[in-house]
């Protein structure tokens, strides 16, 4: 980064795709942390202190203390859809624009949610590990017999864009019955098209054969599914979490996988990731993936371009397409 460069300075907090960097560097002065290791909170504060903008993902914590240490900062643009790592009210109070990356990842993430559902219910990874370990000696009548997906009841906790895309796959592709719980109900027409039934959370837990969790992580959704909720689920049910670690109490989940009622779980997100609860690592009836639900190459590129679109629009005086706090745009830039 050239400190004499009069253009807005932007910290890119991780290694990202070259074409996206090229677009950004045409009109912004970049400081690129070209690494897959997230900056420590101290290093982030130091690097961001002289910057006007930040390109972030899910791993950079942008809170009030950091904002106070970075008074030049005017825009924080994330390539993720979830923004629980960013204190939005604190940014708005300081006139800092925040954007996320919705829509471009919806279908890819729903594909992966469904992949986890299928792998979990039909014990795909567990049986593969058995085969690779040389343990396959003979055919047997119930070898890795799992749970059916087709015709079963799909429960969706969090019926936003991604929840609806998972629901479409279940209903239209696999003939599943659909129950869901969400703060707001779907329009009647959408409910009718999917045969979707809104139920309260306890009914959802009691009725779902396969529960898919897709709610944003907020203080209200912390441990939304804990020991009491897991105890309400059907014996033999499965649970998939593609939302955020922290929505599910991982310790309680590990216990429910060991002692029942759950048959299995599929998890892409974890409390305290990249650390994973030892009880989950020890369980054979859980499919574990490293937060990759949106990770098709095309979608990750689209997410990064969308974060760049927001930065470029903001610093050229335009309207960032997926701003979360447009009200700050009324202030001088
Ligand atoms: C990924 O978890 C995202 O929020 O985009």
Automatic annotation (TrEMBL):
The D-isomer specific 2-hydroxyacid dehydrogenase NAD-binding domain extends over 114-293
A family per Pfam:
2-Hacid_dh
Q: Which SUPFAM superfamilies match?
A: Formate/glycerate dehydrogenase catalytic domain-like, NAD(P)-binding Rossmann-fold domains
Q: What PROSITE patterns does this protein's entry cite?
A: D_2_HYDROXYACID_DH_1
Note the InterPro entries from the entry: D-isomer_2-hydroxyacid_DH, D-isomer_2_OHA_DH_cat_dom, D-isomer_DH_CS1, D-isomer_DH_NAD-bd, NAD(P)-bd_dom_sf
Location of the D-isomer specific 2-hydroxyacid dehydrogenase catalytic domain: 10-325
Q: Which GO terms describe its molecular function?
A: glyoxylate reductase (NADPH) activity; hydroxypyruvate reductase [NAD(P)H] activity; NAD binding
GO CC field: cytosol
> Hydrolase: is it a keyword of this entry?
no
What highest taxon heads this organism's lineage? Bacteria
Task: Supply the alphabetized keyword list.
Answer: NAD, Oxidoreductase
Return the CDD domains for the record.
GDH (cd05301)
> Which family is annotated?
Belongs to the D-isomer specific 2-hydroxyacid dehydrogenase family.
What protein name does the entry list?
A: D-glycerate dehydrogenase
């Amino acid at each position: 980064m050239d400190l004499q460069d009069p253009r807005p300075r932007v910290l890119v907090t991780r290694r990202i795709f070259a074409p996206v960097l090229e677009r950004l560097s045409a009109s912004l002065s970049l400081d690129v942390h070209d690494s897959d290791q997230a900056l420590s909170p101290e290093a982030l504060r130091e690097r961001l202190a002289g910057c006007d903008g930040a390109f972030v993902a899910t791993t950079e914590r942008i809170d009030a203390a950091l904002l106070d240490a970075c008074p030049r900062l005017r825009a924080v643009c994330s390539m993720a859809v979830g923004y629980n790592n960013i204190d939005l009210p604190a940014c708005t109070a300081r006139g800092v624009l925040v954007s996320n990356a919705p829509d471009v990842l919806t279908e890819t993430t729903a594909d992966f949610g469904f992949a986890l559902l299928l792998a979990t219910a039909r014990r795909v990874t567990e049986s593969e590990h058995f085969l690779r370990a040389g343990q396959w000696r003979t055919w047997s009548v119930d070898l890795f017999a799992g749970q059916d997906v087709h015709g079963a009841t799909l429960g969706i906790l969090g019926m936003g864009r991604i929840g609806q895309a998972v629901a479409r796959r279940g209903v239209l592709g696999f003939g599943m019955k659909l129950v869901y719980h969400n703060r707001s109900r779907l329009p009647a027409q959408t409910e009718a098209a999917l045969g979707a039934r809104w139920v309260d959370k306890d009914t959802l837990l009691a009725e779902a054969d396969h529960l898919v969790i897709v709610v944003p992580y907020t203080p209200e959704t912390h441990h939304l599914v804990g020991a009491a909720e897991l105890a309400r689920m059907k014996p033999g049910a499965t649970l998939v979490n593609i939302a955020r670690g922290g929505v599910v109490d991982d310790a309680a989940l590990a216990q429910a996988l060991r002692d029942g009622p759950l048959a299995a779980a599929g998890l892409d997100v974890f409390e305290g990731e990249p650390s994973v609860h030892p009880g989950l690592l020890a369980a054979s009836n859980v499919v574990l993936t490293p937060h990759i639900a949106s990770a098709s190459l095309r979608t990750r590129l689209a997410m990064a371009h969308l974060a760049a679109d927001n930065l470029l629009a903001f610093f050229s005086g335009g309207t960032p397409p997926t701003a979360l706090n447009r009200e700050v745009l009324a202030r001088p830039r």
